[in-house]
Amino acid sequence: MFIWQIESGYVDPSYKNHEASGGLGERDTFVGFEDWDSFGQIRLGRVLTPMYEIVDWPGANPGMGDVWDWGGLIGGAKFQDRSSNTVRWDSPEWGGLSMDLGYGRTKAAAVGSDQGWWQGGAAHYKVGPFLVSGAYELNRNTKETLSYEKPGTTDRKISNSRIWDNNTYLASLQGWFDNGISFFTQYRWQDALVTSGIDVGRKEKQNALSSAIMYDIADWQFKLGYAKNEELHVNGKMLDGTDDDVISFQAMYYVDPTAVLYFRARDVRMGDNKVPVRGGQDVAYRRWKSDSFNEVSVGVEYVF
Questions:
Q1: Superfamily name with CATH number, domain 46-80+122-302
Q2: How confident is the model at residue 11 (pLDDT cuts 50, 70, 90)?
Q3: The pTM is what?
Q4: Concatenated DSSP letters of 8-68
């Protein structure tokens, strides 16, 4: 069967990026073929990578994406999220086992900023009340441009660039029980290598974890989650104070099967974002990282 979809982004004018991210095709937009009784599903276009599908759900909920998703300090690109110019295959389920494979160009390559590309896959196995998943994604040729002050001066900055290769591995376990309790726990191993430009041979590592426990009773769900980015390592040396974490609580009420009301409270703590320009040197620059914050929010979600 031939399938296709065009999906827009968030178009509310109160969202500061609504013009850039609210257009048709900004989210899952693809053509493809589907037959779950034989080959499964093949899509070509803009879709989630197999790795990111697990990172996004369940790993980033409730409200843990600042740390678990787009957070962290490792160089290059640890994974793509929703990627254009992608071909993805999702298998049917074979006795509890299924898999996903994908290949595509990176976001930066799509706009001509570098020559990046990615490929990856995931496997899932259902056994009793548990779902065990594993995923891998490699990103190649990701360009980083950095600016920093010349040692001993404050009147001008030096700009340089380098190219990164990244490998990211993920292990995930989920469970659902008849008493209303469910959980997930995930762990990511991430490494990066500079292949050209400034500081060739530089190696970075930063691992991360995310876990949550849920309790469903009647029309309510209560959820407590925790996520953490561990300290960044550069050429084997740990940079103290570069870790981040978030603890989040959410209470959700199902108005009907397609609408929910929710209350969420979370504490997000972000560590230092300063890293050395070259491994082992004192000259440093700052990579982007959001600020620490506390937040209480209420909201409504509706599926149509």
A1: Porin (2.40.160.10)
A2: low
A3: 0.92
A4: B----TTSTTHHHH-SBTSSSEEEEEEETTTTEEEEEEEEE-HHHHHIIIIITTTTTHHHH
